[in-house]
Model the fold of this input.
Amino acid sequence: MTDNGGRGRGTTATTERRRPVRGAQDAARRAADSLAALVHHRLEGVSAVGRSEDDGWIVNVDVLELARIPDTTSLLATYEVELDPAGDLLCYRRIARYRRGAQDQ
Done:
């Protein structure tokens, strides 16, 4: 007879250790993936990546918040995502919201 109570033990999700962030590209990917899972908006891209004071990462991710026709009137937002040195999400916040066709100020 098999023991069904132990199902799920030893899976890769529970035993795999996350490796540290391996540079700006890896930080950008992890930040974008983490943000997408939380805000459920389509990602447009990453507009900035930098190191934080505690050796983590701060990444600005642009997302499409509201699609409109014509596309130049769609609303986009930039979110600042902070990761720890291991690449885990610490916090995020929306820092800007703008129309796609708006000129930079």
Q: What stands out?
A: Confidence is low (pLDDT under 50) at residues 1-16. The longest helix spans residues 24-39. The helical segments are 12-15, 24-39.
